[in-house]
Write a structure and sequence with these properties.
Blueprint lengths: L1 H38 L1 H8 L3 H23 L2 H14 L3 H28 L11 H27 L4 H28 L4 H39 L9 H19 L1 H20 L4 H42 L3 H28 L1 H9 L4 H30 L3 H26 L3 H25 L4 H35 L5 H26 L1 H6 L2 H9 L3
Protein name: Polysaccharide biosynthesis protein
Subcellular location: Cell membrane
Membrane topology: Multi-pass membrane protein
């Protein structure tokens, strides 16, 4: 009996280690990519000068439409493949996993071509009355050709809980995209003094350059691992036979809900894009260039920064899917409950302090990236967006959880309810709160979705336990303490930095942000390690950190 209990404990520990390793790789790749995707804004905005907010509004409008088409072209196939590969790998049927990947390649290549053509030739129908959007959309259609295949290959690796190729290719994709963006923006705006819309078009075409680099990285990794995969296939059970038509049916049935749920945040952003301008024209007398600037502030500026924290949740969500699928395949209800608890705690441990921390430093952080234009409004929008980002990130995680236990249809149903709530709230919220209106409506929509999904998961698997709630309470308290400390540091930092330099300059603001991050990060780490809450999240690594920091 004791030996059996030890085996169960070891199995749980191995599963948790898999989750932590996967989360570490995906989080690192995602965070580095997001940080790189935010830092480029500083030189990009400087080179565009007075045209920056107009350029950013155009960039965001094109990218939102592109994101929707990209999700459709990917068709949820990578996540579906990751889930199904994990399922068959758990049954020691690695041959079927490879066949799934090959069949998926045919599907992804086909959907990529169809969606790229639709995006290119359908651009005039999607411009929302702004002809400048048309060349931007067309420049993005080229990336749609490549990204589905690249994403599918990432999904295949993730099905083996092999997250390193995905993380490294993701970083390479972002690196080459940013390099191309900055080089072309500098050349067009500063060297030849060209048109700002042309510079934006080249900045969006950079998505194709980045995706090509990411695909090459994945190809190199696949060649390196080919012998290992061949060995697994040779030693498979080979007891299950699945015909080609069934494989296609299986992929598509899994993929359709992934499209809707994967596009969740993008769908909300498109609702904003196609309603904000019309409602604001009715309720205000602002000219179009001012509306573009206001739209850029909440849909572009704030969104780019909060996506850094949301990417933490996205990275964890991708990790949860194959692990939950494995427990679901084995009909291990206790294992599912345990993984759900793990996912919620890991999400909360990172996301809540990160979001509250960004709220605390919203003023100087906004100045670092975007300068002093519309500073007061931009900082307030960023602060509010940071709080709302917790709901965005939570949706990403729990939607992935529902997919991992094959409850896609139910998750889609709940998302539709949330979307209806968003649509109903959208117009009155914009009329009452202006620029904050779309964010408030999105918060209402995601509160509905998240509440329904969490209630459903708890009813089925009873994942909420005293231990879990206790840890969540500690995390919330520590996050609030960190927020207050970071906020106090910002006020003190502004005073001290202002003595030696202008605290409202980019350099002065950066120093204040750095101080707040260091102090706040240390306080949160100390409290988490001292209370042993960190042990549950990072395991034995917490002992090493306690020794380094001399915490008993």
């Amino acid at each position: 009996m004791q030996e059996q209990n030890e085996n169960i404990t070891n199995s749980d520990q191995q599963t948790q280690n898999k989750m932590l390793q996967g989360s570490a790789w995906m989080t690192a790749g995602s965070i580095l990519s997001r940080i790189l995707g935010a830092i480029y804004i500083i030189p990009w905005s400087i080179w565009f000068g007075a045209f920056y907010l107009q350029a950013n509004a155009l960039y965001v409008q094109g990218y939102n439409i592109y994101s929707m088409f990209l999700i459709i072209s990917i068709a949820g196939i990578p996540s579906a493949i990751a889930k199904e590969v994990a399922h068959y790998n758990a049954l020691n049927e690695y041959g079927i996993s490879l066949r799934l990947y090959k069949r998926g390649l045919v599907l992804s290549f086909t959907t990529g071509i169809i969606c790229a053509l639709a995006l290119y030739f359908g651009a005039p129908l999607l411009d929302n009355g702004n002809p400048n959007v048309i060349p931007v959309i067309r420049s993005l259609s080229w990336a749609v050709l490549i990204i589905p295949t690249m994403s599918l290959t990432r999904g295949y690796f993730q099905g083996f809980q092999d997250m390193a190729p995905s993380a490294i290719s993701q970083f390479a994709e972002q690196l080459f995209r940013v390099i191309y963006m900055l080089v072309t923006a500098f050349f067009i705006m500063r060297v030849i003094h060209g048109n700002w819309t042309t510079a934006v078009t080249q900045s969006t075409f950079a998505a194709f350059i980045g995706s090509l680099a990411g695909l090459i990285i994945l190809g190199i990794y696949y060649l390196k691992r080919r012998k290992y995969y061949s060995h697994l296939i040779e030693n498979s059970n080979n007891k299950i036979h699945v015909n080609a038509n069934h494989l296609y049916k299986e992929i598509i049935s899994q993929a359709i809900p992934f499209i809707i749920l994967g596009a969740g945040i993008t769908i909300f952003q498109l609702i904003d894009q196609y309603t904000f301008f019309d409602v604001m024209r009715i309720s205000t007398n602002y000219p179009m260039n001012v509306l573009n600037k206001l739209y850029a502030i909440f849909a572009g500026n704030a969104n780019k920064l909060i996506m850094i924290t949301i990417s933490l949740a996205s990275a964890m969500a991708i990790t949860v899917v194959p692990l939950l699928s494995e427990a679901f395949t084995k009909n291990d209800k206790k294992g599912i409950s345990h993984q759900l608890s793990n996912g919620f705690i890991l999400f909360s441990f990172v996301m809540i302090p990160a979001a509250l921390g960004m709220t605390a430093v919203s003023g100087p952080l906004n100045r670092v990236f975007y300068g002093t234009g519309y500073n007061h409004l931009s900082a307030n929008v960023l602060a509010f967006s940071s709080i709302v980002s917790i709901l965005f990130g939570l949706f990403t995680v729990i939607a992935a959880m529902m997919q991992g236990i094959s409850q896609n249809k139910l998750a889609v149903k709940y998302f539709i309810y949330g979307t209806i709530a968003k649509i109903l709230a959208q117009v009155p919220m914009i009329l009452i709160f202006g620029t904050f209106g779309p964010l408030i409506a999105s918060a209402i929509g995601f509160l509905v979705v998240n509440g329904l999904i969490i209630k459903s998961l708890d009813n089925q698997f009873g994942f909420r336990s005293y231990q879990m709630l206790e840890r969540l309470n500690f995390i919330l308290i520590f996050s609030l303490v960190t927020y207050l400390v970071a906020l106090a540091t910002v006020y003190l930092g502004n005073t001290v930095v202002d003595i030696f330099t202008n605290s409202y300059s980019r350099v002065g603001s950066f120093i204040v942000v750095a101080l707040a991050v260091i102090v706040g990060g240390f306080i949160y780490s100390y409290l988490s390690l001292k209370s042993r809450v960190a042990d549950y999240v990072i395991g034995h690594q917490s002992d090493k950190l306690r020794k380094i920091l001399h915490i008993k």
